[in-house]
Amino acid sequence: MNRPVRESTGTTISLFMSAESRLLSLIQNNPFRVLGVYANASTKEIVANIGRTKAFLKVNRDVVFSSDFSQILPFIRRNVEMVTNAESQLTLPHEKIKYALYWFVKVTPLDDIAFNHLNAGEITSAIAIWDKKECFSSLLNKATAALIQENLPLAINSMMKLLQTDDYRKEFMCTVVDTTYRASEESLVYLYLDCLIYEMKSYGLFILQNITGSVYREYVKEKLTFPIVSALEAEIEKVRLVPHKDSHARYNAGVALVNATKTLLEQLKSLCLSTDMQYQIIADKLGIEILQCGIDYFNNSEELDAALKAIKIQKYAFSIVVGKMAKDRCIENVGILQKIIDDLPPKDVYIEDKQIKDELAKFCRLPAKITYAMDLLRKTHPLLQAVKKKLGASNGYYLKISTQIVSSALYYVIEEVNNAQKSTIDNSSAGYPFMSSEESKFQEIKSALYSAWKATQLMDTFDMEKEFKNNRYVVNRNTLRDLCRQVGVSTSADPMVRPVSATMSRLPTMPPISSSSTTSSSSSEDTSWGCIIAIGVGIIIFILSLVNS
Questions:
Q1: Average pLDDT in the 1-25 region?
Q2: Is the CB of residue 378 less than 8 Å from the CB of residue 458?
Q3: What gap in Å lies between CA 149 and CA 202, rounded to an integer?
Q4: Residue 303 CA to chain centroid, in angstroms?
Q5: In sequence order, what DSSP letters do the residues of 427-476 get, joined into one string?
């Protein structure tokens, strides 16, 4: 049955979306309502209604009582089991009081008038009647009507006033149970709040905001936060059991932990200040576990976009932690990943990038020989062309990695030429017979320069960053060209190689060939090139007498 439209008071806080609300279940299925009586009904009235109800049920007829209030509550369709359960629920005084806190009593003439309004569906008018004179029955009835009307502040304020006022509380106890039953203010307030919190977990903040008295506020806060903290702890513990070396499992666990706890943490934060120690402890614990999932995933993953995936959950971890130590740890890890991400290639060329870096990693483990430099150039050239086609010749990443290849190859070229020159001089001075003639020295240097020029012609086909090309590559290329010409090595352009820019001018003197410093790094932390190429300065001490002899 659809819930009837009720009058608006202008101050109502709407809490319920349908007649199936659990709080309304406490009211609409209240045992006093099931038995068709008010909370102050006598035993005789209760027994009479039970008999009448069962008699109607035997002939399959619905029984209706004036206290059903079907204009403001869903229609109640009774059966034998429901009536039997309601009767047993009102057997013990403690249970009778609990259900009375969420039902109506009929004590004063004003109550009669107000109930007439309720049966007409005029709940706001009924509340206005009870506002005319304050007593325990008007406060209790107003609290119940306010809950039906979805006005939580009015309901709580009315009930707290009833239970915290000695005379009202005593009258309530005597009317519902008897004069012999004793219950303290605290026990009754806790009983009322326990039911309210149980029925309205998702509206805990509204409850907390409308509770007066620090003791009761702390009680409500504890009752509301304990299950949330327990749920958060349980989720964290599940993730801790996931093997740290299993990158995919750890990543999935981290994402699942974020999704499973986001709402819970928001609920906890709404109930506690962010400076509250209880909140800080659980937020930091949660954040650090999410952060660790990201670290474990990145450290053990071979996925090309591992840093991009890991930083998402790590940034979330940073957003929820509160303590300085936890924040500092998050800042450090997010910073490392961000630096790695800044150096990542465009997504379209992840495959080519990995293949190029694999070639560079293998190259860095080889001795400084020109033949290895040429192998590197030949293997990476088609990969770089694929990158160029996808990104364009002016793309910064493409020029950077192409320059990296040329710089690495150029270093090996310079090293071998310099080593050949140094070896010739050292061997001659040491008196080796096979290196004693000027012709032998000349042929060794000439061979090195020949290979070096061939490698240079390959490097000419690579695009490079402007600064590197003009200030490093061209300088060394021109020096090498002049040396080749002096020893008789042809520097004519290969028809398969595009010519070098005509702006290269012949040096007036014979400077040494020097290599420039390029760096690349590799570690499990930063996913860069795979080796560190530390290029020092190599100098050819070229002996002109060998050329002129």
A1: 43
A2: yes
A3: 18
A4: 19
A5: HHHHT-GGG-SHHHHHHHHHHHHHHHHHHHHHHTTS---HHHIIIIIHHH
